[in-house]
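Researcher: Next sequence.
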Amino acid sequence: MAERILIVEDEEDLRYVYVRQLRGDGYLIDTAADGEEAIEKIRTHDYAVILTDMRMPRKDGLAVIATAREHLPEAEVIVLTGHGSLENALQAFKAGNIFEYLLKPLDDIGVLNTVVARAIERRNLRRHNRELFERLQQAYEELRQKSEALIQQEKMSAIGTLAAGVAHELNNPLTAVVGFAQVIAEKLRSNRPTNWSDTEYERVLRGLDNLVQGAHRARDIVATLLRFARASKPEARAWVDINQVLRDTFVFTEHLFLRHGIVLEKRLTPELPLVWANAARLQHVFTNLLINAQQATPGGGTVRVITESNEEPKGVWVHVEDTGHGIPPEELDKIFEPFYTRKEQGTGLGLSIAKQIVEEHGGEIRVLSELGKGTCFSVFLPATDAEAIPPQQPTAQAA
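Model: Next structure:
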């Protein structure tokens, strides 16, 4: 494509000479008789090179150069003036991107072709370098993101391996604790010691019941750790029951609500469609939303977790509602940005990572909030048809 050149010269004879000299090189040439006409053209066209006089009626060459710098920062400017002085030259170079400063009349008109060709060459080289730099930046950013993702996957894999080992080591002694506590309780109920008072007898039975309940809760935590371990490997996906993912999340978060006097309501719709997902990564999402809700809700408040199925498109909604302070309207568009946080000790990555994980699963996350009344985060996860899953991938439902 031919390069476009603008010639700004108030003397008609000189404009004619410049146009005739350069047209033979195949350029598209526009002309302007004064600075004001040149400025209008610079604002509406893309020029590779601008040749301009300095002293002209209406707007002068400095105004032309300044406008070119603002609207066409990549354009090269060649000054052709009959009023050359050091002061004028310094003003011109300060005003914009000056490639050459020439005095007229030119001793050899042919030099104009050489100067314009060199100016276009420099302009194209700078543009090429800028494009290369942008591509390098993009490649670096992609490499950085992939590196971070790989590190995160390795961490998740290591945590999963550790969790599986811990779960295995805890499971056997917990089974023994539950078994022996139940045996002792049955023996005491069938053969009460004669030297125990009623108060002592009831206290021991209650203590054994609490021991059994505590051991069962510990076994639930171990089972959750095992499920987490199985799903912590990179790209590990299976048919997932979102209600079960939430129950696993409650195992690790419910104590926070009890400790702070917050009611945790669970309204889990039964028989939800299954989702092809990484259960551990979704658990990360819901853990983050629940902790945020707990931190935003004062004692005596309520946090509700609601699940529901969606027909079109087919999928599952999970709503986490709180009765906290709410989020100011001007901040709602920022909360998913990396490093944006409203907490003094926060990193600003929780919601950003949650959004990334949800979108990895083809879903979306929304937020509604009203100051003084609370906030609701809603996560939609599509329910993939079985035919859409590659046959070589596992399709076992996550327990």
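Model: The first strand starts at residue 4 and ends at 8. The radius of gyration is 37 Å.
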